[in-house]
Amino acid sequence: RVHGGSRNLLVGVMAEGVGSRRVYVGNLDWSVAWQDLKDHMAQCGNVVFANVFRFEDGKSKGCGIVEYETVEEANEAITTLNNSTIKTRQIFVREDREDKEIKGANTSRPPRAPREPRPPREPREPKESGAEAGAESGESTEGRQLFVSNLSWSTKWQDLKDAFKQCGNVIRADVAVDGQGRSRGHGIVLFERALEAQIAIREFNDKELHGRVISVRLDKFSS
Asked: What is this structure's pTM?
Protein backbone atom coordinates (compact mmCIF):
# COMPACT_ATOMS: atom_id res chain seq x y z
CA ARG A 1 0.00 0.00 0.00
CA VAL A 2 1.34 3.41 -0.92
CA HIS A 3 0.99 6.46 1.28
CA GLY A 4 1.66 10.14 0.79
CA GLY A 5 3.42 12.19 3.44
CA SER A 6 5.50 15.22 4.32
CA ARG A 7 9.04 16.83 4.10
CA ASN A 8 12.07 17.63 1.54
CA LEU A 9 13.40 17.09 -2.12
CA LEU A 10 15.63 14.10 -3.35
CA VAL A 11 15.91 10.26 -4.25
CA GLY A 12 18.49 7.75 -2.92
CA VAL A 13 18.99 4.07 -2.26
CA MET A 14 20.65 2.87 0.90
CA ALA A 15 24.29 2.09 1.35
CA GLU A 16 25.66 -0.20 -1.28
CA GLY A 17 26.02 -3.78 -0.29
CA VAL A 18 23.60 -3.41 2.61
CA GLY A 19 20.61 -4.56 0.57
CA SER A 20 18.22 -1.65 0.91
CA ARG A 21 14.92 -1.44 -0.92
CA ARG A 22 14.49 2.27 -0.17
CA VAL A 23 15.74 5.28 -2.15
CA TYR A 24 15.82 9.03 -1.51
CA VAL A 25 14.53 11.35 -4.25
CA GLY A 26 15.39 15.04 -4.37
CA ASN A 27 14.75 18.24 -6.31
CA LEU A 28 11.04 17.51 -6.72
CA ASP A 29 8.73 20.10 -8.23
CA TRP A 30 6.57 21.74 -5.55
CA SER A 31 3.41 20.35 -7.19
CA VAL A 32 4.56 16.70 -7.13
CA ALA A 33 2.36 14.57 -4.85
CA TRP A 34 3.14 11.09 -3.50
CA GLN A 35 1.02 9.52 -6.24
CA ASP A 36 3.03 11.34 -8.94
CA LEU A 37 6.24 10.12 -7.32
CA LYS A 38 4.96 6.54 -7.12
CA ASP A 39 3.82 6.53 -10.76
CA HIS A 40 7.17 7.82 -11.99
CA MET A 41 9.28 5.46 -9.90
CA ALA A 42 7.09 2.47 -10.82
CA GLN A 43 8.97 2.36 -14.14
CA CYS A 44 11.65 0.36 -12.32
CA GLY A 45 9.53 -2.04 -10.27
CA ASN A 46 6.80 -2.55 -7.70
CA VAL A 47 6.61 0.48 -5.41
CA VAL A 48 5.31 -0.53 -1.97
CA PHE A 49 5.72 2.88 -0.34
CA ALA A 50 6.08 6.48 -1.58
CA ASN A 51 6.25 9.68 0.43
CA VAL A 52 6.79 13.39 -0.34
CA PHE A 53 7.94 15.33 2.72
CA ARG A 54 6.09 18.52 3.67
CA PHE A 55 6.28 21.42 6.08
CA GLU A 56 3.65 21.80 8.80
CA ASP A 57 1.66 24.14 6.53
CA GLY A 58 1.42 21.40 3.89
CA LYS A 59 3.93 22.86 1.43
CA SER A 60 6.29 20.39 -0.20
CA LYS A 61 9.93 20.34 0.91
CA GLY A 62 10.94 19.11 -2.55
CA CYS A 63 12.10 15.63 -1.61
CA GLY A 64 10.81 12.22 -0.60
CA ILE A 65 11.48 8.49 -0.32
CA VAL A 66 10.37 5.45 -2.28
CA GLU A 67 10.49 1.82 -1.15
CA TYR A 68 10.54 -1.04 -3.66
CA GLU A 69 9.66 -4.70 -3.32
CA THR A 70 13.24 -5.80 -4.08
CA VAL A 71 16.79 -4.47 -3.73
CA GLU A 72 17.31 -4.96 -7.46
CA GLU A 73 14.42 -2.64 -8.28
CA ALA A 74 15.84 0.03 -5.97
CA ASN A 75 19.26 -0.23 -7.62
CA GLU A 76 17.63 -0.03 -11.04
CA ALA A 77 15.84 3.18 -10.00
CA ILE A 78 19.14 4.80 -9.01
CA THR A 79 20.72 3.82 -12.31
CA THR A 80 17.76 4.59 -14.56
CA LEU A 81 15.80 7.44 -12.97
CA ASN A 82 18.59 9.64 -11.59
CA ASN A 83 18.47 12.90 -13.61
CA SER A 84 15.06 11.98 -15.04
CA THR A 85 12.27 14.59 -15.05
CA ILE A 86 9.01 14.74 -13.10
CA LYS A 87 6.82 17.60 -14.28
CA THR A 88 9.16 20.62 -14.60
CA ARG A 89 12.22 19.52 -12.62
CA GLN A 90 15.09 17.10 -13.07
CA ILE A 91 15.26 14.87 -10.01
CA PHE A 92 18.19 13.04 -8.49
CA VAL A 93 18.04 9.58 -6.98
CA ARG A 94 20.53 8.59 -4.30
CA GLU A 95 20.98 6.01 -1.59
CA ASP A 96 18.96 6.42 1.58
CA ARG A 97 21.37 6.00 4.49
CA GLU A 98 18.87 6.52 7.29
CA ASP A 99 17.95 2.84 7.66
CA LYS A 100 20.60 0.20 7.17
CA GLU A 101 18.08 -2.60 6.79
CA ILE A 102 14.44 -2.74 5.81
CA LYS A 103 13.08 -6.15 6.74
CA GLY A 104 9.43 -6.77 7.36
CA ALA A 105 8.80 -3.04 7.62
CA ASN A 106 5.24 -1.98 8.41
CA THR A 107 4.43 0.23 5.41
CA SER A 108 1.21 1.46 7.01
CA ARG A 109 3.30 3.87 9.08
CA PRO A 110 5.01 6.98 7.70
CA PRO A 111 8.76 6.59 7.20
CA ARG A 112 11.39 8.34 9.25
CA ALA A 113 12.75 11.41 7.55
CA PRO A 114 16.14 10.93 5.91
CA ARG A 115 19.00 12.50 7.84
CA GLU A 116 20.28 14.83 5.15
CA PRO A 117 20.84 15.13 1.42
CA ARG A 118 24.02 13.51 0.23
CA PRO A 119 26.44 14.92 -2.33
CA PRO A 120 26.75 13.22 -5.69
CA ARG A 121 29.44 10.58 -6.17
CA GLU A 122 30.59 11.94 -9.52
CA PRO A 123 33.59 14.30 -9.49
CA ARG A 124 32.68 17.93 -9.00
CA GLU A 125 33.29 20.36 -11.80
CA PRO A 126 35.03 23.41 -10.36
CA LYS A 127 35.70 25.11 -13.69
CA GLU A 128 32.17 24.74 -15.03
CA SER A 129 30.58 25.77 -11.75
CA GLY A 130 32.90 28.71 -11.22
CA ALA A 131 34.21 27.38 -7.92
CA GLU A 132 36.92 29.29 -6.13
CA ALA A 133 40.05 27.44 -5.22
CA GLY A 134 41.37 27.97 -1.75
CA ALA A 135 42.18 25.01 0.42
CA GLU A 136 45.59 23.48 0.03
CA SER A 137 45.57 20.11 -1.68
CA GLY A 138 45.50 17.31 0.83
CA GLU A 139 44.11 19.53 3.60
CA SER A 140 41.18 17.93 5.42
CA THR A 141 37.80 19.59 4.89
CA GLU A 142 35.97 17.43 7.44
CA GLY A 143 33.64 19.50 9.61
CA ARG A 144 34.21 22.62 7.48
CA GLN A 145 32.49 21.65 4.23
CA LEU A 146 28.71 21.88 3.78
CA PHE A 147 26.39 20.26 1.25
CA VAL A 148 23.64 22.64 0.12
CA SER A 149 20.63 21.24 -1.76
CA ASN A 150 17.35 22.40 -3.31
CA LEU A 151 19.05 25.43 -4.86
CA SER A 152 17.26 27.54 -7.44
CA TRP A 153 18.39 26.85 -10.99
CA SER A 154 19.49 30.50 -11.17
CA THR A 155 21.81 30.29 -8.13
CA LYS A 156 25.49 30.47 -9.14
CA TRP A 157 28.62 29.71 -7.10
CA GLN A 158 29.17 33.44 -6.51
CA ASP A 159 25.64 33.79 -5.13
CA LEU A 160 26.29 30.88 -2.79
CA LYS A 161 29.56 32.40 -1.60
CA ASP A 162 28.06 35.86 -1.13
CA ALA A 163 25.17 34.48 0.93
CA PHE A 164 27.27 32.26 3.19
CA LYS A 165 30.20 34.62 3.78
CA GLN A 166 28.16 36.41 6.46
CA CYS A 167 28.85 33.32 8.60
CA GLY A 168 32.62 33.27 8.13
CA ASN A 169 35.50 33.03 5.67
CA VAL A 170 34.35 31.02 2.63
CA ILE A 171 37.34 29.23 1.10
CA ARG A 172 35.43 27.69 -1.79
CA ALA A 173 31.90 27.59 -3.17
CA ASP A 174 30.64 25.21 -5.85
CA VAL A 175 27.36 24.64 -7.67
CA ALA A 176 27.24 21.28 -9.49
CA VAL A 177 26.34 21.49 -13.19
CA ASP A 178 25.51 18.96 -15.89
CA GLY A 179 27.23 18.50 -19.25
CA GLN A 180 25.34 21.47 -20.71
CA GLY A 181 26.38 23.75 -17.87
CA ARG A 182 22.94 23.72 -16.22
CA SER A 183 22.70 23.66 -12.45
CA ARG A 184 21.89 20.35 -10.76
CA GLY A 185 20.30 22.20 -7.85
CA HIS A 186 22.96 21.45 -5.24
CA GLY A 187 26.47 22.50 -4.30
CA ILE A 188 29.10 22.79 -1.57
CA VAL A 189 30.51 25.56 0.63
CA LEU A 190 33.88 25.21 2.38
CA PHE A 191 34.65 27.41 5.39
CA GLU A 192 37.99 28.17 7.01
CA ARG A 193 36.81 26.89 10.40
CA ALA A 194 34.36 24.22 11.58
CA LEU A 195 32.65 26.73 13.87
CA GLU A 196 31.78 28.89 10.87
CA ALA A 197 30.23 25.86 9.14
CA GLN A 198 28.06 25.17 12.20
CA ILE A 199 26.90 28.79 12.26
CA ALA A 200 25.97 28.54 8.57
CA ILE A 201 23.89 25.41 9.21
CA ARG A 202 22.03 27.21 11.98
CA GLU A 203 21.45 30.33 9.88
CA PHE A 204 20.62 28.82 6.47
CA ASN A 205 19.13 25.34 6.91
CA ASP A 206 15.43 25.39 5.93
CA LYS A 207 15.74 29.08 4.99
CA GLU A 208 14.84 30.65 1.65
CA LEU A 209 17.47 31.54 -0.97
CA HIS A 210 16.42 32.86 -4.38
CA GLY A 211 12.85 31.68 -3.90
CA ARG A 212 13.60 28.13 -2.66
CA VAL A 213 13.88 26.69 0.84
CA ILE A 214 17.38 25.21 0.91
CA SER A 215 18.79 22.38 3.01
CA VAL A 216 22.25 22.79 4.57
CA ARG A 217 24.13 19.87 6.14
CA LEU A 218 27.71 18.81 6.78
CA ASP A 219 29.18 17.15 3.70
CA LYS A 220 29.67 13.56 4.84
CA PHE A 221 31.78 12.85 1.76
CA SER A 222 34.41 15.48 2.57
CA SER A 223 37.77 14.25 3.75
From this structure: 0.43
